Input
Amino acid sequence: MDQDHKKLKESSFPCEVLEKVLSFIDSHKDRSSASLVCKDWYDAERWTRSNLFIGNCYSVSPEIVARRFPKIKSVRLKGKPRFSDFNLLPQNWGANVHAWLVMFAKVYPSLEELRLKRMTVSDESLDLLARSFPGFKALSLSSCDGFTDEGLKAIATHCSFRLLGLVQMIIYQNLTELDIADSVTEDIGGGWLSCFPESFTSLEILNCASLQCEVSFDALERLVSRCKALRVLQVNESINLEQLQRLLVQVPHLTRLGTGSFMQELTVRQYKDLQTAFSNCKNLQALSGLWDATSVYLPFVYGACASLTFLNLSEANLRSGELAKLLPHCTSLRRLWVIDTVGDKGLEAVGSSCPLLEELRVFPLDPYDLDNQQGVTEAGFLAVSRGCPNLKYVLYFCRKMTNDAVVTIVQNCPDFTHFRLCIMNPGEPDHLTNEPMDEAFGAVTKTCTKLRRLSVSGLLTDKAFEYIGKFAKNLETLSVAFAGSSDRGMQCVLEGCPKLRKLEIRDCLFGNAALLSGLDKYETMRSLWMSACNLTIKGCKLLAKEMPRLNVEVIQDEWSDETHANKVYVYRSVAGPRRDTPPFVLTL
Amino acid sequence: MSIPQEHDYIGLSEPLPSEKISYKMAAAAAAAEGVSPSLNAEKIGAFNLKETELRLGLPGSEAPERKGGIGIGVSLFGKELKDESVCVKSFVSGAKRGFSHAINGAGKWGLSIHGGSAADLGGNGGPNVKEEIPAVKAVEERKNEASITAPASKAQVVGWPPIRSFRKNTLATNTPKKDDVAGKSGSGCLYIKVSMDGAPYLRKIDLKTYCSYAEISSALEKMFSCFTIGQCGQGLAAKEHLSESHLMDLLHGSEYVLTYEDKDGDWMLVGDVPWEMFTDSCRRLRIMKGSDAIGLAPRTMQKSKSQN
Output
């Protein structure tokens, strides 16, 4: 009887079949779920996983990953907490990719893609990368720092792969040193472009838009002319209109274009050439760059706008009239990024011209001037909501907002998945009623049932957090600043939001009681960040003691002392405490 | 008594309420004394002694008549200075305004987060108080840092609003990449305080941006020139690495002397040690009156001898 039973078990589901089935599953969440079913499924899953996603590089170690997954082809790795984007994290905090690369070189020699976000990548690491993976195809460095021209040269020289977007690099000290360098005989920062061998023709994506230096146009032009498969080209501000035209005629089939500077004195001939070049770009889906674009030159792009789904005007200080003239040409627009120079009037134009709009981001021209009355208000947001019922993603920087406006906005657009409202003056109340903005976010969480990401701002009491805890059942990421009236606020969120993964808090008065109310919660989350709150070292130590599988780290800066913990970062980890902490990070 | 005239002289675009009043008074006083209406800044300064009066007060406390004053310190800090003689009178109100604005700014959010209701405030007694102090101190520090890169009327909180600093087409100034953690950085910036005897406020500089004594002394000269008639650090500018004999020349020659507080808390004369050693051990700088520094020199030389 036992033998039969055994045979049944073996023959009913051979592992080859299981592996074949599981290989169709791409989502890492689904794969994680599958791996928990039983040991057989765990094994089958680990043998078939080829895409690795690690949301927090310190939650697991390279050794553990190498042991579990033998066949990885692409890696997505994220490092620093998001608030490092806003200078809240001291330099040299960590998230260095090198140890990971060393492991990849040993265990995954056939690695093809590497996408890093908020990690420190040294030139040495780029060099290692360039030489270790013969089949390497795509590199994406988003908000990474630590490398210079030299590292990029290594990549260009040794890799004939599809360079995938050096997106939003932030080069801290290094490029500054390059600028200051005494010998300025060669192109700084653009030099690496010349290192692509002449035989290299496979480039499909090139994005160097955030490079702050001169780029060698000759090298760029040669590269573009021989890479006929190029579909994404995003240059930096140093490329002018005339040069852009010469590039465009080489690659009219671009799907994504990032222009350089859009202000240059042109001859009539050049003007016409540019118009023609743009009109020939029939496949353009995304357009960005457009530095200093004005009403004189903006009309160039009209001819290329019909197929645009994404228009990024966040480097062009357009005014309402210019935007109003441009938008009617963009009949397929789904995503729009603008600067608040367009004003409420410009946003009215958005509302009337972009019925298919799903994402809107409005950035402030002058975020630090608290007295400034320019920019957008609730009126602009309202106008967009009336005309764009499909709105799902909004990032809105403003100086004034009202509860009523937000209530109406979410009634017009109940499908929000990402609602990031930043009222720039900390603790600013409803500017008409002078009340806290609690009701606004109450409406957002109540009406937008699909809400996954929320950033709150303005004057907020615990009531706002009660609403969030009560209604935001799909919330995964919450960002809080200058808000709350007691520990209860944070507690409501921790107890009420079952899908919460990332909680980042700054400058609130939540204290140890609030921190400890989430004792059972933090292991279900990716991370918690609290800075400039009311936490003490004692409180953090208590948390660390009760929850040994959490890493509780306190970052010392000049506002912390023996008792006050000014910056606290808590995250779950199977790798134990960090082994590479700098002296100012205290692991409790 | 045309206000725009006076404001043009100072180089401001927008007349500000309290300044209008004081200029009116100044001009009226001048007219009464038979002085021509086209006053120069120094004369205006003479009449506005009250404005120039140095006052030290605790954060948050300030003279009532200054409350509304925006001050014309907007263009004071750093690059936009056009007329040095102007800043003698203008920096005070500017500095105070920037300071009070920072505090008021802090008060705004400090109070709003701490005072949702009186009951809550009471309930959070102990920790609340603790929070206030770092916050106020923090804003003070931030104001000092901000004042180097931005006009004083903009009170900056680190990392707020949450805008990425690579966005070039905003007027977002690049806030210092990390907080001032003296001595704890490898590569990175190294902000230290610089004080000058007789000046009402301190400055902060990043030692990493200089590579020699000559550079730093000329930078400091520029920074503090409005407080003296440009005699500080003259001797230092001459030599990159000073020797013993030059020290004595320096002290007897110039009116001001550059000193620094080292790791051990001692006040040393700047210029003794190699530049790298200096940046490693320097905690703060002080521009001292030459007469005070004479007592310093022998000790300094003894110390450097013993270090050698």
Notes: The first helix of chain B runs from residue 3 to 10. DSSP finds 13 helices and five strands in chain B. Strands of chain B lie at 191-196, 203-206, 256-261, 267-269, 284-289. Chain B has a mean pLDDT of 52.
